[in-house]
Amino acid sequence: NAGVTQTPKFQVLKTGQSMTLQCAQDMNHEYMSWYRQDPGMGLRLIHYSVGAGITDQGEVPNGYNVSRSTTEDFPLRLLSAAPSQTSVYFCASRRRGLIGETQYFGPGTRLLVL
Amino acid sequence: GQQLNQSPQSMFIQEGEDVSMNCTSSSIFNTWLWYKQEPGEGPVLLIALYKAGELTSNGRLTAQFGITRKDSFLNISASIPSDVGIYFCAGHRSNNDMRFGAGTRLTVKP
User: Fold this and answer.
1) Strands (E), A52-114
2) Counting beta carbons within 10 angstroms of the beta carbon of residue A57, is it exposed (0 to 12), middle (13 to 18) or buried (19 or more)?
3) What percentage of chain A reaches a pLDDT higher than 90?
4) A38-52 in b/e burial notation, b at 16+ Cβ within 10 A?
5) Do B96 and A4 touch (CB under 8 A)?
């Protein structure tokens, strides 16, 4: 199993550009989520999905879109990048059920918006 | 939103020493989790706590869910160099309400 994979590892964007951060998992997990990690702050939940076709907003959803057409993939879209979206983005997945079910995180995507 | 206050922010200790860190909140959480993150990687779950008062161990790690459900601590005994990393607490109430502390950066000097 590859676990949770994220691409790209690094990305530089100009303000106003759009891009999609890719996330895939091969563990057949129902629950997937996106977090951002900023210096001096804990991870903050952007969007999550409890299964294919179902998505919902987390704590900081503004400026981001998601979709879940398959169990395996959960892409995060930035429609018009802003410098405030400079951050490290983590995708995570787990089985549905107890939150303490191990949540597996991807290696992260480091994004810089100029 | 509700913040988790994690302390200390950083710790510099000698190999073999014990470590203690904690998280507090003004809100009640149903589950407390502790994660470790190493450079260039995502967080890895260490311990999950489900009931107020619960004390759980995982090797040299021990964590407790506070009686008030507003706090938790993590202890690491007899630290070793590979304990180096950033430790995060997280409190969970529902699918879209999981809050992380800002992290404790641990450095272990051999």
Assistant:
1) 54-57, 64-66, 76-78, 87-94, 104-105, 109-113
2) middle
3) 83
4) eeeebbbbbbbbeeb
5) no
Looking at the partner chain, which of B31, B48, B95 has a beta carbon nearest the beta carbon of A50? B95
Please give the residue of chain A at the shortest CA–CA distance from B90. A42
Tracing tokens 């992380």 back to the chain, one arrives at B100
Beta-carbon separation of B100 and A107 below 8 A: no
A61-105 pLDDT, tens digit per residue, is: 999 999 999 999 999 999 999 999 999 999 999 887 766 667 889
Q: Which of B 68-97 lie inside 8 A of A, CB atoms?
A: 88, 90, 92, 95-97
Tokens describing residue A114: 């100029």
